[in-house]
Amino acid sequence: MIKPLPPEPQPAPQQIDPICDEKNGAKAGAATDETGRLGTAPTTAAMSLTRRLTLLLAMFLSVGGVVIALLAASYGRQAAEQTYDRLLLGAAGQIAAAISVQDGQIITNLPVSAFELLAQAPDDRLFYAVIDPKGGLVTGDDLAFPQGRGTRFFDGVDQGEATRFVALERIFAERGFAGVVTVVVGQTALARADLAAEITRNALAISALAGGLLVLLAVLVTRAALGPLRSIEAALIARAPQDLTALNLPVPREIARLVAALNGFMSRLDRTMSMNSRLLADASHQIRTPIAALRAQAELAADEPDPARLRRIAGRIHARAIDLTRLTEQMLSRAMIIHRADAAAQTLVDLRDVAMDAAEEVGDAQPNRRRDLRLDLPDTPVLAMADDLSLREAAKNLVMNALIHGKPPVRIQVRGETLGPHHLAVVAVQDAGMGPLALPAGKGPPKAMGSSKGTGLGLQIVRAVAAAHGGVLATRKGPNSFEAAIELPAATRPEKGATR
């Protein structure tokens, strides 16, 4: 019986473990990091880049292993066929060369060397036959072979075993004999199958070794490439919670964008936290005094028997309450501006709509001062990329400051301007007063208004809004007027406007 080919080895599947098991992945809540500080455990598990790459390579190598196994098996069979076909052909050639003709008879002297070639496969059985021109058997085994011309190989079965044959012809043209003598040599295919299996195993072993080295190299390269990420992790873990300064680490170009994004995020977070801290400090400072004054006035009113003086005290309490209400509104407005500075998306805004909305809201809040407001709007849109709500709040603060600290009339103007190569979209508020005390004309941080009621929060809000939109708060003094203007980059070049 022919020995079956041994099973072709397959690459062993690799066990891929997730970075965290299910128990760790499902765990949420407080956890302690490497530094011992209390942190938040991850709520979802993610496979590491190293293991992800290993999995992809294992899948690729598994598919490649199947392809290589098929190719190696095909190559092994072909190589074994060629090797043993040459041995068969050599043996048949030696037998054919030993044939001679004497007195018209075929004489066969079988050379020992012919069978020594085939004896390299000791488990296989040999067959041979010498056939005369008429098809008669001269010597050897009675073998059936296909008719044809020239040297030809063919397969057969003997006693249930696959057998390979070669038929070789030798032409004789002598005085007493002429014709073609055919030599047929066969051998069972056990050695062929063993050689094909050995070639296949060797090819698969080399492929498996190369694949394992490739996976190992990929893991080492990936870990080396992720080294800068570990340095970033270590730098962040070692920082104090309040340290939001930019990371300054030597990293490859591919990770530099990640570091830049982290630095940008920390910068925005630092800016927001700083603004919140200033807001809390200002609130504690600004609100404490009005509340203390209200409390003192209320205590006086409780002990005051004179109705006339009690009415005056009640008036002062009412005025203080109005001031406190406006101060609270400004503080809330400033908190809203801080929140929307980085959170709100900017859209294309027509400053004429901003001016009309600001005038309407201020007129509703101060109905007795509505007659002091004037609108000066162009016929064409004045556009800017802005957060409409923040910009409207800033315009309202300018109008309220002008009504409280300036002199009527208060004119709300929208215009487009060109300043050198820059095109500006401007919303300005003018009044007939002298403006804040100790404030030179120009662009800068305005101080508190000259009135004793001023806190300076209104113009701080306006300046913060202008800066968040890439603009400035500009102030100008005239002989009998004062103007505070929000100057923003124009979205399109204004069709009409002043040139400064």
Write up what this structure looks like.
There is one protein chain. This protein has 500 residues and is α+β, with helices and mostly antiparallel strands. It folds into 3 domains: 1-12 and 47-225, no CATH class; 242-343; 345-500, 2-Layer Sandwich (Heat Shock Protein 90), CATH 3.30.565.10. 48% of the residues lie in helices and 21% in strands. It has helices at residues 22-26, 49-97, 112-118, 190-225, 227-237, 253-303, 307-343, 351-365, 388-405, 457-468, and strands spanning 30-32, 38-40, 99-102, 105-108, 126-131, 137-140, 152-158, 161-173, 178-188, 347-350, 373-376, 383-386, 410-419, 422-431, 442-443, 472-477, 482-489, 498-499. The strands form 5 sheets. Strands 11, 13, 14, 15, 16, 17 and 18 form a 7-stranded mixed beta sheet that branches. Strands 6-5-9-8-7 form a 5-stranded antiparallel beta sheet. Strand 3 (99-102) and strand 4 form a beta hairpin. Helix 2 runs antiparallel to helix 3, helix 8 (351-365) crosses helix 9 (388-405) and helix 9 (388-405) packs antiparallel against helix 10 (457-468). Residues 1-43, 438-455 and 494-500 have low confidence and may be disordered.
